[in-house]
Amino acid sequence: MKPMIKSPLQIARASYQPKLPTALKGNVVLKEGAATESVADQADIKTLFPNTYGMPLISFEAGVKKEYPAVAAGVILSGGQAPGGHNVICGLFDGLKALNPNNKLYGFLAGPSGLVDHNYIELTKEIVDEYRNTGGFDIIGSGRTKLEEEWQYDKGTEICKKLGINAIVIIGGDDSNTNACVLAEYYSQKKTGIQVIGCPKTIDGDLKNEMIETSFGFDTACKVYSELIGNIQRDANSAKKYWHFIRLMGRSASHITLECALQSQPNICIVSEEVEAKNQTLNDVVDDIIKVIVHRAEHGLNFGTILIPEGLIEFIPAVKKLISELNDLLAHNEDFNALNTDEEKRQYVKGMLSPVSAEVYRSLPKGIAKQLTLDRDPHGNVQVSLIETEKLLIEMVAKRLAQLKAEGSYKGKFSALNHFFGYEGRCAIPSNFDADYTYSLGYTASVLISEGKTGYMSSVRNLTAPAAEWIAGGVPITMMMNMEKRHGKMKPVIQKALVQLDGAPFQYFAKHRESWGDEKSSYIYPGPIQYYGPTEVCDQPTRTLLLEQEK
Amino acid sequence: MKPMIKSPLQIARASYQPKLPTALKGNVVLKEGAATESVADQADIKTLFPNTYGMPLISFEAGVKKEYPAVAAGVILSGGQAPGGHNVICGLFDGLKALNPNNKLYGFLAGPSGLVDHNYIELTKEIVDEYRNTGGFDIIGSGRTKLEEEWQYDKGTEICKKLGINAIVIIGGDDSNTNACVLAEYYSQKKTGIQVIGCPKTIDGDLKNEMIETSFGFDTACKVYSELIGNIQRDANSAKKYWHFIRLMGRSASHITLECALQSQPNICIVSEEVEAKNQTLNDVVDDIIKVIVHRAEHGLNFGTILIPEGLIEFIPAVKKLISELNDLLAHNEDFNALNTDEEKRQYVKGMLSPVSAEVYRSLPKGIAKQLTLDRDPHGNVQVSLIETEKLLIEMVAKRLAQLKAEGSYKGKFSALNHFFGYEGRCAIPSNFDADYTYSLGYTASVLISEGKTGYMSSVRNLTAPAAEWIAGGVPITMMMNMEKRHGKMKPVIQKALVQLDGAPFQYFAKHRESWGDEKSSYIYPGPIQYYGPTEVCDQPTRTLLLEQEK
């Protein structure tokens, strides 16, 4: 047998032609709306961004043929992978070449550091063609270097001047786009002539607002996780013997978990934002889980599924306080470090914590408590991301159920399995939705560049309509900003979008969750992403987006 | 928004009509081959199965219309879930109804215990239609009760007589089919008139032989795991900072791991059967891994993927011996149980083990050693399935790399992430291959029943050809049997198919693995199972099957 180089789907998928909004298919004319304001702190933001504040919204419409001077652009992938990143670059490349065949595109390597360290390649048709409709960020690599210092910006100017680059496109999340905005302002102030355009990327779905309906990658990642959750639910419903505790990526917001719940209808789904709003303790969360488990056990059903957002414990006010006290208490604490046994350390910590935090500490399973005190990062901080919240909850639930059993108020059997899904979805082959959306975002960026715009985020809206009806344009990044405290200082940043408890997706969930948790299972089995076949199977946006845009 | 009851794919997939071999599409004539022999221990097997030994192979061909008397069948799902189980039942139902509209099908509930406890439902068109082409075993549930005692068989006779059931179809793995064969023999001896037909099920792929080319579910499960492995590889190749240690289901054989490696081409793949054949120690396995990690680090690549079969440590002769010694040593050992601290227990165990096993015990990370001595099942046995082998290997690899770094022979960075995939694939929506194969297996069973056969396994062969050319028929289960020691007694059992080191799949792997592990990545990204679209994307059998049948 001949060695395989690519899978059949990789080969077939290479020839997919992403759908574009009608306005981008031919000649484009740019329409400017009214001047904009930032979402909050207008005076501060205006002062900080004198050159890029208040610019109008931009939309594109079909127009007459227009000649654009040749430009060169450089593109950067910033932060965690999200399905569709390659198609942003493909759309950008195709758009630039369509607007002027002499346009050039460079890729800075391994994230923002490529701009600073002058690591780059020219992106040719041969290279770009290899990556059409594929997952991953491997075309130029990504990285987490933050562009925050003037010397970095100046190193960027240097390489742009050398290569004749007129514009930089930064594909990233809220932080990277905040930095893109600062960079745009700096380059305007310094009159470098270098434009900066942002693109909204993150599987977490927390970069969105009135003009950015969703970040790319959220659709595909949630569909991959939902496929797996559905499969596990079918297994639970067949084997009838396990409770599956499934933790899902997404530390700062619960959009992924909520969307997966809307797609698969598990018995229980925890939303961090609700836990925080209700000021719940970890025991409260456990009690909520217990209620459903006990109810189902009364009907002979000792199995089910529970979705848990990765960031949960940081949203529990009491645990947050405990972690903060531990960080203050144990960083460079020689007395503590001198103690010999785990038990001595445990007692020492208990004695030093505030009474409330000591109580929370006592309530934690020993393994977790130990992890909080012993596994610390180089700065002495608790490594929250290492805590396997799903195992923590299994342990606490099992303990509580054992008590209830002893008291006679629970007669079921409890066996649990744990799962964590994250890396399985960040580099999946983008869904048709994400393939089309990202290609359109990249194409839109090429027009913004050719029109000489800077400080804008590429925006494609009306996303629950067919792609032909999508509205492409640009949104001033300053419009999304407010002032927030970061590392003790007030900074201009893009507002992070958490799950809104009064928003349609959460409201739909809140209305139906009781029935999902009862003895009649409401499991849905989404199955794997389909790229071919009926449009209702292949081209659906997320439930979150459908609910948010429902008339 | 209206509540969702089913996903778009569930709705679309319901109307898929599985492909059948041409011979089964119209009237069928049964062809008998020569008499058969068991694979080994012919005299013993013949003595134990006087009524069902030596029966001929059966194949079906297109024939003339034949009238069959009405029959009733009962179907049982036995053991772990595998994609396609529902379609076996659908094929069986459709076949029975096509052969005689008065035929009936009952389903025994929750596995073999349904037969014994007289729990059953009649399977009607309305019920069956709800489950066409779906994953899971929830139509009638499954269970792990073993049919091994005569009183169980007699309880079965009782309910079959009551319902007028002429035949029982047992859908299960090697053990369940062994029991099906014993049951067939018993019913023949007792002249109950109840036939027994088996169906080859298991995602593990270890029920196969000359006449059974593959067990159903293996195709779909491996494709789901390979999708995830591919996604993780794309992530590894983009982020360039993690080694992903991925453990895959399959305790008794490494077919799943090997097939996933053939589909995704990871940097490293461990095959338990090879480890055993080479008499490797755990340190040898670690050294093999280290070689690849160090080589890639020398080229600046501090990332990669490693596939690990779930059953690995039970295949390592030295660990197997250690576990066996621990089981003998610690079961009901009051001296040990009276010890107070973990350290005392550790020392006690070390003192009692053979020198060789004590050395292995010392070489294990403390957490694992503790798990081996403390986490024991109710019979006092080590719970091997709880051991997270991927974490064990990460710990041992990290330790070894730290030594090499201190010695100056390794300069890389090692960060690892762990994954375990099993429950994610057992109930996936069956691939076209599994949907067609299982439907054909069920349909074949209906003909075997109507032809009055017993002690046969439903067999569909020539599986790498288009479904129309598949060869349907029956194989005497005694043909697959030999004598093996089980719980100290010689028993007739179906030979379990392990990975053959001289077989084509392993040989292909062995030939290419070095290049997969080197600095040029050979990753393949299979993507999710597709049900629509080009046939080369949607209808491919496994690489294992393609290699095994390559001319």
UniProtKB/TrEMBL annotation, chains A, B:
Chief place where the protein resides: cytoplasm
The subcellular location is: Cytoplasm
Q: Name one GO cellular component term.
A: cytosol
The residues that hold Mg(2+) are 174
Per UniProt, diphosphate binds at 80
Classify the source by domain of life: Bacteria
Report the catalytic activity. beta-D-fructose 6-phosphate + diphosphate = beta-D-fructose 1,6-bisphosphate + phosphate + H(+)
EC number(s) of the enzyme?
A: 2.7.1.90
Which cofactor is essential here?
Answer: Mg(2+)
Keywords on record? Cytoplasm, Glycolysis, Kinase, Magnesium, Metal-binding, Transferase
Swiss-Prot/TrEMBL GO biological process terms:
fructose 6-phosphate metabolic process; response to glucose
Q: Does the keyword Cytoplasm apply?
A: yes
Q: Which family does it belong to?
A: Belongs to the phosphofructokinase type A (PFKA) family. PPi-dependent PFK group II subfamily. Clade 'Long' sub-subfamily.
Name of the protein in question? Pyrophosphate--fructose 6-phosphate 1-phosphotransferase
**To which species is this protein native?**
Paludibacter propionicigenes (strain DSM 17365 / JCM 13257 / WB4)
Gene encoding this polypeptide? Answer: pfp
